[in-house]
Here is the input.
Amino acid sequence: MILIDDPNDQRIAPFRIRERGLNTRADRRERVAAGLFVAEGDLVVARALQAGCIAVTAFVDAAQPPPVIDQFGPDVDVYGADQDVRREGMGLGVPLSIVALFRRPAPVRAAEVANRFRVVALEAVDNPVNVGTVVRSASALGWDGLLLDRTSADPLARRALRVAMGNAFAFPFARVDSLTATVAEARGRGTLVVALTPTAGSVPLHTVVAQKGQAVMLLLGSERGGLSEELLDAASLRVSIPMASGVDSLNAAAAAAVACYALRSQPPSSSARPDVSG
Here is the structure.
């Protein structure tokens, strides 16, 4: 461990860079397997390593370094400092025991994700907390992948990873240039494409039943504008979650969790352990 006593030390400068500064414009669009992502906390770091992601450097609590640093290779520089230096050096109100930079993994081909059995597709969901929550919910409920348009937030954004508890490393996701074209192709293969929308004329979620062995794609849009008309038109069904009087809709992430549960391929195993991580 390399000890740091100055929050302005240039060796920890990468931890102060705004997330967009870690990647080029092409990297941010995930067209190439390049750039970096930030993993915060020992659980997220451990899951990144388990998934085979390559660590570049880390900044840790010098007094109580997390055991996960023992999994780093000899070429990974690990910097340590006390809480005050880490708080100022990283610009975090509550500094975590570890923050690490990793190289982005190779992107998954969109067709590989789109052809899976249960897939969530997001349009213009630009809040990384919502994207991270969708990843966590879909993964926990047995879904197989995530498609995003070019305007949705990055599942490897630091806030998305933190909310998803690192589940994005084991949950395939891909971006597509035309979500409408991808949806049309899926529907043409016989996939049941469910567009979640609170608009009039939609059918209640609890009435939707996929045929045995039928793939399902769930579409969700932004909380402000919802799904575009072209995506609504491309779907098999327009579906809503019935609301109590006076409430028009749920948060996008909450709606995704409800729909993923309702449309899952089979109930969770009775022997599955409950998630008590909060």
